[in-house]
Design goal:
The chain contains eight helices and no strands. By secondary structure, the protein is mainly alpha-helical. The protein has a domain at 3-43 and 101-190. Helix 1 packs across helix 2 (31-40), helix 2 (31-40) packs antiparallel against helix 7 and helix 3 packs antiparallel against helix 4 (82-99). The longest helix has 24 residues, at 167-190.
Length: 192
Amino acid sequence: MHIYETLSLAPSGFTMGMVLMLLSLYVLLCPEKFRSQLGSVHAKSSAGTVLLGIDFIWVALLLFKADWNPLCMPLFEFENFRGILLILCPVIWFIMSSMAKEQLFARALGMFLLLLAIVPMSAAFMKDPASRILIPLWWYPVLTVAMFWVGKPYLFRDWMAWLVQRPHIITALAVFNFAYGLAVCTCAGLFW
C-alpha cells in the first residue's frame, strides 16, 4: 500500500482548505503586488528551473525503491523500467531547463499541480461522507488547466495577461477560493 492511500481525509482537507484561504487572503490583501507578479512570472526561467527541479525530485522519490522511502510507488508491469526512468529524471530536467527555457515556468507549474493533486485526491477516494466530493470538485478543473499548461504553455502566458487586465475577476476568484477553502475546512472539522 502506497503512503498516499493511507492519508486521512480530515488533515488533507484541512490543509487544502487552509492553503486555499491563505493564498486567497494574499491576493485580496495585496492585489497590485499579485497582479504584477502574475504578469511577469511566465518570463522567469529561473523560477521555472527551480520548480521543475522540485517536480523531478518528487518524481524520482516516487520511483526510487528503498526501505527508507515511503513515497516509492509500485510500477507493476513497468517495474523493469524503474532504473531507466530514474536515470531519465535528471537528464530530462537538464535538457528542459537548458534548452527549453521559454515558458518553462508554465510547464513546471502544470507538472507540480499534477503531482500535488494526487495527495488530497487519494485521501478523498472512496471515503465517507459524501461531502468529500468538495476535494475532487476543486481539483478536476485544476488538473484540466494544468494539463493545458504542460502541453501548451503559451496558454498560461495568455491567460495570465488576460487576468491581469481584469482585476475584478481576480478578486472574484480569490473570494470564491476563500469561501471554498472555508467550506472544505468546515467539512474537515465537522464531518471528516
